[in-house]
Amino acid sequence: MRIRSELVIGALFGSLCLAGCAADSEASDPSYPSDGAASVPTVAASSEAPSDSSSTDPAAQAQAQAWLDAAVLPPGAVSATASVATFNSYQGWPCGPVEELEAFWTIPDATVSETANWLRENPAADLNTTSLVPMTGDSTATQTTVGFIPAPEAQEGIVYTIMARDDGVVVRAEIAAQTEAAVCPTLPDGVLRGAPGQG
Description:
By secondary structure, the protein is of the alpha+beta class. Helix content is 23%, strand content 27%.
């Protein structure tokens, strides 16, 4: 009986080790120009769906990918994987289901304020920013968000989170596109839903 238990424990341990190795096998793709805005090729971004959305809506998937493909980052941005930083918050998409993607970049020698302001002034595709006030150049903020939506009051689009680190900043893009079946929960009277990227 003891031998059988040891064999089962050994098999489980081996399976866990293999799963851990598979999770660490992601590679980044630093295929960005160094002398201009960094556009995002379809295959370059580290894309994941962190939510528990189980949707597989082709039109919404295509829309999310189109927004990711149209995203531009400040000069010097380099594509990265999710392991580049640990973020403490995530954008909630209250209307769903949605199709989601994530992408990450590092920008050496950049600050949170200058990166946020650059993103505000360079919207992806036909999106409009929800960040209406620029950050001051002397801001000491270590993290901020900049949101973009396709239309007023929309609950889909792109939310960039910019976080400081010792050698510059790291940027995460959370992209969500609503499926055809998406619905928004009814809010109590007098309650308004904040725009993506506004907290």
